[in-house]
Amino acid sequence: MMKTDKGMSIIVKTVTRISVWLIILYGIYIIVHGHLTPGGGFGGGVVIALAFLNVMLAYGKEFTEKWLNFQLLHDIESSSVTVFLVVGILGISLGGAFLANFLSKGDLFELYSAGVIPVFNILIGIKVGISLFLVVWLLAGINPEEEDE
Amino acid sequence: MILPYFIIIPLIAAFLISLIAGKKDQWAISLSLIAIIAVLVLSVYSFIIFQKETLIYNMSGWKFPFGIVLVMDALTSFMLVMVSIISLTSIIFSVQYIRYIDMDWKYYSLFMLLVTGMNGVIITGDLFNLFVFMEIALFAAFILVAYGRKAEEFEAAFKYAVMGGVSSILVLLGIAILYSATSTLTMAKVAEELKLLNPKITLWVGGLFLVGFGLKAAVMPFHAWLPDAHSSAPAPISAMLSGVLIKALGLYVIIRIFFNVLDAPIIFTKAFLILGAISILLGVFLAIGQWDLKRLLAYHSVSQIGYMLLGLGLATPLGILGGVYHLFNHAMFKSLLFYNAGSVELALGTRDLQKMGNVVKILPVTAQTSMIASLSISGIPPFNGFFSKLIIIIASIQAGEFWFAFFAVVGSLFTLASFMKVQRYGFRGENIIEIVKEKIGWQMNIAMILLAFLCLLTSLLIIPGIKEVTLDPVVNVIVQKAQYFNLMTGR
Q1: Among B487, B44, B490, B22, residue whose Cα is nearest residue B260
Q2: Chain A residues with CB inside 8 Å of B11's CB?
Q3: Which are the contacts of B103, defined by CB distance < 8 A and separation ≥ 6?
Q4: What pLDDT is recorded for position B446?
Q5: Is the Cβ–Cβ distance between A43 and A132 less than 8 Å?
Q6: Which residues of B touch A101 (CB under 8 A)?
C-alpha cells in the first residue's frame, strides 16, 4: 500500500501510520470536552488539521490527494458553518435569542451537559480542522519558480 | 427582533454560495442579490420605523452588561441603509465586470463576508465584537483588492494588509487599556465607567483609537495605503472600499467611540478639525496632478473624508449634520465615479486620462452619469454635494472657525478644477477612439443610472420636512452623547 518513493523514509511512514489516528482521537477528545476542560473547538480543530498535515509531510502530496476527497472536505467545511448558523437561528425560535441555549443543560461536569455549547464546539472543530489543513495545502502548492507565466 | 439578521443573512449567504454554487456563477449571483435586497429592505424598514428609539438585542439571551449586545439607533440604521444601497449596485455592476476577470463564485462569497463585517461593525455595541467584525471585513477586502491576480494588485493588497495590521494592533491595544480600566467591553457600560476614572485614560485610549481608526478611514497622515489599494482593486470593489468601507470601519467607529463613548473631549474635536483641514487640502493637491483616473478618484476620497471630519470636529449640531450628510452623499457619487472608471477601463482598456477621448460618443451612459457625479463631488447645485459642503462651510463660519471655512472653500475649488480636467481630457477629449474592446452591458448601465438618480434624489434630504425625519434623528444621536448609554442602562 505505501510502497511509493515520494515522502519520507519507511520509519517515518510507519510511525505516522500508527500515530495519525491517535492524533485525530486526541483532537476529537479536546473538541468534545470543550465545555469541561481547557481547549475546545478551535484547539481541537488545530490538532486534527495537524494530523492531516502529518500525513502530507510523511507520504507526500500525491498520496494525500488520493487518500482524501477534497471536494467532500470543501463541502463539509462550508456546511459546518451553515449548520452553525442554522443552530443559532433555532436559538431564536426555541430559546429567545440568536445563539441562545435550547437544549437541556444536564448535570454539571458531565459530558452530556452545557446545552448547545458542545454542538457549537464540534461544528467549530470541523470547520477549523478542515480549513486550516486546506490553507496549508494551498500554500504548499505554490511553486515560486513557475510564477512568471 | 430583526437586529441579528443584518449579520446572519449575508453570513449564511456567503457560506451557502460556497456550498451550492458549483463551477458557474449563476447561483452565486442570485443568492447574493437576494441576500443584499433582504438586508436593504430590512434596513430601510428599520430606518423608517425605529427612528426615535434605541433597540437593544442581547445575544444568546445574556442580559445587558454581561453578554454581547447589538444596538440599533438612527445612526446605525442610517449607515446600514447606505451600506446596502452601495452593495446592491456593486453586485449589479459586478455581474459583467467580474466575468471579464474570471467566472467564479469566490468573488460573491467574499463580497458577502465584506458586507457581514461592515454590518457587524455598524450594529454591534461591544468593543471586542467590533474588532472581530472589523477583521472579517478587512480580510475579505485584502483578498478582493488582489482579485485580478496581477503583480501590482498583490503589492497593493500586501501594503493594505500591513497598514491594516498596524492599525488593528493599535485598536486592540486601546481596547485592552479600556478593558483593564473599566472591566467591561460593552460600549455603553464603558462610557458610564469612564466618567468616574482619571481623564488621562481617555487621552491615552483616544490617541490610540484616533490613529487606529484614522488609518482605516485614511485621514491624511495615515492615508498611504489608500491610493494603491483603491486604484488597483476591481472597479466594483473600489466603489465598495471608497464608498462605504472607509466610512463604516473608519468614520462611523470614530463617531461612535469619540462622541458616544469618550464624550467628545475638546482636544480630540480640535484634532479632527486640523486633520480634516490637512486631508482636504493635501488630498486635493495630490489628486489634481494624477493622470490615472482611479488614482485621482482615490486621492479625492482622502480629501472628501477631510470634509466629514471637519464637520464632525466643529461639534455643533449644524457641523455634525453637514458631516453626516456629506458621508452619505460621498458614498453615492464616489461609487458612481468608480463605476464610470471601471466601465471606461473595460471598454477602452486604459485608465490614463490622456489616452481616453470621445467617450461621450461611444459610451453615452457612462459619460453622462460621470458628468452628474463630477458636478456632485465638486459641489455644483442642485446636486447633493453642494448642499452638504455648503452646510459644513456655514457651520464653520457660525462656529467662528473662519480659517477652516476658507480651507473648505479652497478644497472645493480645486476639486472642481480636477474634475474639469477629468471631463476635458477623459470623457470629452479630442482623441478619436473607434475600437471598443468590450461592450458595456445593461447591468453596468443600470447600476450607474441608479446611483446618478440617487445623486439628485439625496439632495432632497435637506428640504425642511424631509430633514426632520431623515437626518435630524441621526444628528440627535451624535449630539446628545450621553443618551446612548442612558437609554441602554434604563435611566
Answers
A1: B487
A2: 81, 85
A3: B24, B25
A4: 92
A5: no
A6: 60-61
Per domain, the residue ranges of chain A are: 10-143
* Tally of CA atoms within 13 A in the half-sphere of B232 that contains its CB: 23
The number of CA neighbours under 13 Å toward the Cβ of B298 is: 23
Question: B342 with B236: CB under 8 angstroms?
Answer: yes
Distance in Å, alpha carbon of B170 to nearest chain A alpha carbon: 25
Distance of CA A64 to the CA centre of its chain: 16
Residue range B126-143: mean pLDDT, rounded:
93
Burial class of residue B6 in the structure, from the number of CB atoms within 10 Å of its CB (0-12 exposed, 13-18 middle, 19+ buried): buried
**Cβ–Cβ under 8 Å, residues A58 and A13:** yes
Contacts of A147 in chain B (CB under 8 A): none
Share of chain B above pLDDT 70, in %: 98
Q: Does A78 touch chain B (CB under 8 A)?
A: yes
SS3 call for B361: helix
CB B404 within 8 A of CB B396: yes
CA–CA dist B429, B354 (Å, integer): 8
CA atoms A97, A99, A104, A108: torsion sign: negative
- Using the Cβ of A96 and the Cβ atoms of chain B, whether some distance falls under 8 Å is answered with yes
Distance CA B31, CA B10 (A): 10
Contact B265, B309 (CB under 8 A): no
For residue A147, give the amino acid letter. E
* Contact call for residues B10 and B119 (beta carbons, < 8 A): yes
Distances (CA, A) of B346 to B94, B106, B423, B438: 12, 21, 18, 6
Provide the CA B439 distance to its chain's centre, in angstroms: 29
- Contact between B442 and B366 (Cβ < 8 Å): no
Contact status, residue B196 vs residue B278, Cβ threshold 8 Å:
no
Q: Are B396 and B408 in contact (CB under 8 A)?
A: yes
Q: How far is the C-alpha of B208 from the C-alpha of B213, rounded, in Å?
A: 8
Could you tell me the residue ranges of all domains in chain B? 5-489
Chain B residues with CB-CB distance to A89 below 8 A:
8
Q: Cα–Cα distance between B338 and B235 in angstroms, integer?
A: 6
> Would you call A94 an interface residue with chain B, using a CB distance cutoff of 8 Å?
no
pLDDT at B359 over 60: yes
How large is the ipTM? 0.86
Mean pLDDT of chain B: 89
| pLDDT digit string, tens, across residues B399-412 | 988 999 999 999 99
CA distance to partner chain A, nearest, from residue B111 (Å): 16
A-chain residue closest to B149, CA distance:
A147
Instruction: State yes or no: cis peptide before B221, omega within 30 of 0.
Output: no
A19 touches B: beta carbon within 8 Å:
no
Task: Tell me if B485 sits within 8 A of B260, measured CB to CB.
Answer: yes
What pLDDT is stored for residue B189 in this prediction? 87
What confidence tens digit (pLDDT) does each residue in B149-169 have? 888 889 999 999 999 999 999
Query: Are B92 and B442 contacting, i.e. CB atoms less than 8 angstroms apart?
Result: no
Element (H, E) at B149: none
Look at chain B and count its residues: 491
pLDDT at A149: 43
Q: Does A115 touch chain B (CB under 8 A)?
A: no
